[in-house]
Amino acid sequence: MRHLVEEQLEEYLGGELSSEEEQAFHVHLQQCRACSESLADARSSHSYMAWLVPAEAPPAPGPGFHFRVQRAIEEKMETSWLAELTRLLRPRLAYPLVLLMLLSAAWTLTLEVDADEEILAAFPAQFSATIFSEADQIDSRDLVMATLVDLTDEE
Amino acid sequence: MGVSPDMDMALPISQVLAPSAPRVEADWETTLVRGSQQGDPEAFRLLMERYQGKVFSIAYSLVRQRQDVEDIAQQVFTKVYFSIAQFDFRSAFLTWLYKITVNECYDYLRKQRSNRTICVSEMTEDEQRQFTNHQSEDVLPDRQAELAQTTALLLRKVPEEERLLLILREVEGYSIHDLSRMFAWNENTVKVKLFRARQRLVKIAKRHSLSGRKA
Description:
Structural class of chain A: mainly alpha
Low-confidence stretches of chain B: 1-21, 211-215
Mean pLDDT of chain B: 82
Largest sheet of chain B: none
Structural class of chain B: mainly alpha
Distance between the termini of chain B: 59 Å
Oligomer: heterodimer
Number of strands of chain B: 0
CATH topology of the largest domain in chain B: Rna Polymerase Sigma Factor, Chain: A
Shape of chain A: rod-shaped
Radius of gyration of chain B: 19 Å
Order of helices and strands of chain B: HHHHHHHHHH
Shape of chain B: globular
Low-confidence stretches of chain A: none
Number of helices of chain B: 10
Mean pLDDT of chain A: 79
Largest sheet of chain A: none
Helix content of chain A: over 70%
């Protein structure tokens, strides 16, 4: 059996059926219990929804409405650069990026610093930055030896 | 992008879904939406001016607090501004806007859920009968607002798409033909979805002990 209520319910509730269609609809209702129940439910839903239709006109936008929206947008733009960045990156990229940042932060915090490097780091920069070449080292050694010889001679 | 303000004059709001000039209207709307997506403030302003009345209307139907409707509408258009780039033209822009508006109203109702809301299960038998049969003649405006919120809360449990469809049909008065254009569905699909939405709403109401009693 064709269930007319499902097909013609909206037109029936809106009074949009022709008189022949409405007559056929009523005949069908008398024969079909499922459709009678569906129609009763539809009428109930129509009644509940009718409460949402206000008796009075809705408020109209005030004269400064556009300006207020514009200001709200500007405020949000100023405060939400991070959100915007995340939106642009999309979750597919943003989540791995955040994960990567967390991993590098964890790696930095747990990194063991070599003791010598620590001492060198504590040494004043102008000294620690100086790198002696092998030739410099030989020259220095010769200079020390020459000074020792001079001292011995003086004695 | 240069959108002439004259276009707004040429197409009054009442013709938004008028079948007489669907092509021109669609082109006009598409131009404004694309302009807004590219950050054109004038296009966004025209879109807002065109549809703000509809946003106010549906927000007032659902929340019934005149002083809060403008705040809700402001939130709606701010959200539209920031998410319009994601609008993909699969349905009418108005449908998308309605969806955002209804969701914003439900956010508001969730935050405000308080003293004004009547719990259906606590209604007397007479009150339930009055609610089920929509006997609004002797009901004071405040009480009507409370009953409207009760319906809004029952509707909250209906799936989002069906809820929007039912609101647009019953509150905004769109025809099946208009709805089929707005959602880009055929008319039979609209009817079937409305049928299911109605059944679901009644089922929810019954679960809240409404209308197990016959009127």
